Amino acid sequence: MRLNIEVELDYHFPVAADVLLAVEAAPLPDQLLLEDLLTVDGAGPLRPIAGEDGIGRRTWLNAKGPFRARYHAVVDLSRHIAPIEGLAAEPLRDLPAEVVPYLWPSRYCEADRFEAFVERRFAGLSGGAKIIEMAEWIRAKVDYVAGSSDASTTAVDSFVSRQGVCRDYAHLLASFARAAGIPARLVSAYAWRLDPPDFHALVEVWLDGGWRLADATRLAPLEGLVRIAVGRDATDIAFMTIFGEARMERQSVTVTRVGE
Amino acid sequence: MRLNIEVELDYHFPVAADVLLAVEAAPLPDQLLLEDLLTVDGAGPLRPIAGEDGIGRRTWLNAKGPFRARYHAVVDLSRHIAPIEGLAAEPLRDLPAEVVPYLWPSRYCEADRFEAFVERRFAGLSGGAKIIEMAEWIRAKVDYVAGSSDASTTAVDSFVSRQGVCRDYAHLLASFARAAGIPARLVSAYAWRLDPPDFHALVEVWLDGGWRLADATRLAPLEGLVRIAVGRDATDIAFMTIFGEARMERQSVTVTRVGE
Amino acid sequence: MRLNIEVELDYHFPVAADVLLAVEAAPLPDQLLLEDLLTVDGAGPLRPIAGEDGIGRRTWLNAKGPFRARYHAVVDLSRHIAPIEGLAAEPLRDLPAEVVPYLWPSRYCEADRFEAFVERRFAGLSGGAKIIEMAEWIRAKVDYVAGSSDASTTAVDSFVSRQGVCRDYAHLLASFARAAGIPARLVSAYAWRLDPPDFHALVEVWLDGGWRLADATRLAPLEGLVRIAVGRDATDIAFMTIFGEARMERQSVTVTRVGE
Amino acid sequence: MRLNIEVELDYHFPVAADVLLAVEAAPLPDQLLLEDLLTVDGAGPLRPIAGEDGIGRRTWLNAKGPFRARYHAVVDLSRHIAPIEGLAAEPLRDLPAEVVPYLWPSRYCEADRFEAFVERRFAGLSGGAKIIEMAEWIRAKVDYVAGSSDASTTAVDSFVSRQGVCRDYAHLLASFARAAGIPARLVSAYAWRLDPPDFHALVEVWLDGGWRLADATRLAPLEGLVRIAVGRDATDIAFMTIFGEARMERQSVTVTRVGE
Questions:
Q1: Among A74, A166, C40, C54, which is most buried by a count of CB atoms within 10 Å?
Q2: What residues in B contact A107, CB-CB < 8 Å?
Q3: Nearest to D48 by CA among D69, D11, D26, D21
Q4: Please, where are the H alpha helices in chain B?
Q5: B260: confidence class by pLDDT, cuts 50, 70, 90
Q6: Taking CB atoms and an 8 Å limit, are A117 and C143 in contact across chains?
């Protein structure tokens, strides 16, 4: 599948502020970047750095006044989404160092507080089957309500309020997985057929020695995802972290399939 | 300074459980390991992995029944502790990728919630001088009370209760630093002259392009610290993470200066 | 049913401290006190005051050193427990002033945070049938685990941890009821056949113009309850509130049925 | 001092909803109501009930579609505000039953969590002098920022964020007072010279056997306050509690001094 991605971010910065952008598609074996261009007006020099875990790219910049960022990419996806149901969880004592952090609770994923719930509710299942059941539970019990959460909402908050958006679904799934001893990380992505189009957030779980996509929202097919960044939770994968004040004036994300 | 370190961990595991140990001194330029031996009885094969950020070593194992771990090391410390007061904070837009995660809030360091307090209370200072003032504030306002916190206590909890132990002092300092845009990470360490002797936790802040030690407790001289592990907060640096049940039967840490 | 109640509270107060005791059975139409005697050694003069909402009795005292309280009562219960299933909730706009506070969230019953969950999970039911379903849900989803909560545990905590004791079950039920617009208050009580014997906590909900007992634990029959105090949550009904330090040395509650 | 009070509340209720209004000035010895009229369009019959603690009046109603409430009052204030500095706290064991609830933590006043802070920061002072110092601390450390809090903000939140509005200042002061064993309740009021004009919230503390006004905001003179309602925290004294959905269209409060 070939996707065309267009992002427009128009902001206004009353005072100069440092900004970390994470909007570029990650170059990965299953997502080949045919075209890929980030342009920014209204900011000092762009300073690219690697993404968390060495996956993808981020860009530091200093913005002042009118700010206009455009990202254009054409991506060839050759992802084979194998069913995870039969995949085993790796014994904890075999987890590699770089996967270990994704066992821990994080700012928005208080995995430690869900241990009794997870042990009880998802007993009898393991590995991929357990993750699938967790995702089903979340989708069945939580209402997707735009605007129902904000930047401070944690998995515990969403568990209680039973409302959220993709970020909250992902925090819940990551929290449940970690509480069960299955490493899980957040992923930001462009998502074909996501409606309304926007940045998407979902989860990767570590099963059978590799990271596997899981999306409790089921709002977009996994085959049409273009990953941007990964991390422990929403803090690591925000598409734009502003260290100061800014006013959003216009923002759009467009993902369209193109002929191959 | 040359230090001799002896650790004894005697536990009982009623059921087999995976365990992640992080008790070995990290081999670092300013702490040279002359002797270094971890021995474990009552566990399956030891599986060493790197520590977070590639610093130090951790060990996976599977424990059952009586468990007895011993760690012995002799470490030569050649640390020059320069005063941090005059060190500048690095502009955010110049931070390298591997330092960026230490800007974010984490499970036990809700840096995002302290922004207004930090901006107001520590205004007018910057860089190392700001960190020193933060550490002084914490030491002045928080009582060191053994047993006043537990594994679920966060920086917000300690800020309100005004009580804590080294872990909580470190969470507060890291939270304040991050809220001010200064990267900060937790460090576990052996500490010469810490009384009573125990694992210690403190902070490293990123100033002038490098990590600098800062300890809001002032319970032990920075020159006598042997670092073990680093990470976002207490979850990353725990000396022993038990995935299951265990009973602690005896635990001791001894750090003594030896002739050179 | 006639019950004999014996309470023994032996404490030690290193420093003089004010204490509020709420251990006396409330004189109520459905629980007639045949015998009723509170004696206290090791405290200054007893100063009786009414309980919250004018129900029952509390006693202020000042304790120092060895403290020994004994409460003895013989109570005739003539309670007719009608099934609440068919009872209607009263329209909010008809609620009397003294019932209104029991609509609000309180320290340990964050009713406001459960509104979406309650609306969704218990939709289609109303009044007593809704309360019964709520109590069933709690009993099915929460494990009764002695020692799993403490004085700071709230309904949100218990909802997440899925563990608790009678106090937590009552906080959950009261929170759910209030979130559905049904007034609910906490009740402390002596409970025949509660095993192990102890002070019990449960709920009264306002249905069809009156307060009706509901106990999500089902640990003791409602017919054998002797109410002590009522209030918004555990703070109002604590059997002993100590304004200072004390060491519990011995504490026992005995409730036995006696011939009539 | 004679004050004229005009309140206009224009709302729209898409679906019929019960509403509890608490906007009428309380008839109290130190505030004499010369004129006093509540009129409501767009609601079923008004059902007056007493306020919490028997102070003041509340009104139940059922609103649908356009809703328009007007309240007009002329109040003679003859309040003598004696300095509280020299007033003693009453020994806990002498507190009357109706004052006891104001010792407890409540939904938005987690007094229990501030005990160590209060004991340490306000040591050496007692009674009214302690309350004054608490109010000064709050005014010095917290920024009054319109819009910085919402209906879910608690005293702990405000203590950490160091921002708030009158409601938050009152929650902090009540929490500190209760943590020090001084009963404190929230009071809603009309406030002469409050700018911008709005419903005001402050605190009454129990000193020397009576309730005494205390306002950590110092935004309006205590002599010009017309009390509406009292209660444990914001939940009890809200001027309008809506059990359903509504859209605020216009709302104004005017308090002007009139010739006597």
A1: A166
A2: 104-107, 109-110, 112
A3: D21
A4: 115-121, 127-141, 155-161, 166-179, 234-237
A5: low
A6: no
Alpha-carbon distance of D4 to D73, in angstroms, equals 6
Mutation target to probe the D interface, by most D beta carbons within 10 A, among B109, B113, B114, B117 is B117
CA-based R_g, chain A, Å: 18
**Which among D116, D156, D160 has the least Cβ separation from residue B114?**
D160
H-helix or E-strand containing D255?
Answer: strand D247-258
**Which pLDDT does position A104 carry in this prediction?**
98
Task: Summarize pLDDT for A45-95 with one digit per residue, the tens.
Answer: 999 999 999 999 999 999 999 999 999 999 999 988 889 999 999 999 999
Which pLDDT tens digit goes with each residue over D221-236? 999 999 999 999 999 9
Count other C-beta atoms under 10 Å from residue A179's C-beta: 25
Tell if the CB–CB gap between D104 and C235 is shorter than 8 Å: yes
Are C114 and C155 within 8 A, CB to CB? yes
Three-class secondary structure of residue A103 per DSSP: helix
**Partner A, chain B 40-79, Cβ-Cβ below 8 Å:** 44, 47, 49-52, 54, 58, 60-62
For residue C151, which phi and psi values (nearest 5 degrees)?
Answer: -65, -15
Contact C18 D235 (CB under 8 A): no
CA A26 to chain CA mean position, Å: 12
A104 touches chain C (CB under 8 A): no
Environment class of residue B92 by beta-carbon count within 10 Å: exposed (0-12), middle (13-18) or buried (19+)? buried
CB C70 within 8 A of CB C38: yes
Facing D116 at nearest CB: one of B114, B156, B162: B162
State mean pLDDT over B90-117.
98
* Binary contact (B159, D160; C-beta < 8 A): yes
Which residues 130-159 in chain D show a CB within 8 A of chain B? 143, 156, 159
| Chain A: touching chains (3 or more CB pairs < 8 Å) | B, C
Q: Is C236 on the interface with D (CB under 8 A)?
A: yes
Determine whether A22 is exposed, middle or buried from the number of CB atoms within 10 Å of its CB (0-12, 13-18, 19+): buried
Distance of CA D219 to the CA centre of its chain: 13
Chains near C (3 or more Cβ pairs under 8 Å): A, D
DSSP three-state, residue B64:
strand
| ipTM > 0.90 for the complex | yes
How many angstroms separate the CA atoms of D210 and C218, rounded? 43
* Chains touching D (3+ CB pairs < 8 Å): B, C
How many CA within 13 A on the CB side of residue D138?
33
Q: Which residues of B touch D156 (CB under 8 A)?
A: 156, 160
φ, ψ at B183 (rounded to 5°): -60, 140
pLDDT digits (tens, 9 = 90+) for A7-46: 999 999 999 999 999 999 999 999 999 999 999 998 989 9
Token pair listed for D25: 């000035």
Q: Mean of the pLDDT values across residues D132-143?
A: 98
* Whole-angstrom distance, CA of residue D99 vs CA of residue C50: 11
3-state secondary structure D130-184: HHHHHHHHHHHHCEECCCCCCCCCCHHHHHHHCEECHHHHHHHHHHHHHHCCCCE
Please tell me the pTM assigned to this model: 0.95
Q: Residue A73 and residue A98: Cα distance in Å, rounded?
A: 29
Res D260: pLDDT: 59
The CA-to-CA distance between both ends of chain B, in Å, stands at 7
Cα distance between residue D69 and residue A145, in whole Å: 32
The percentage of chain B sitting over the pLDDT mark of 70, rounded to a whole number, equals 100
Pick from C116, C162, C163: CB nearest A143: C116
Cα separation, C175 vs C154, whole angstroms = 10
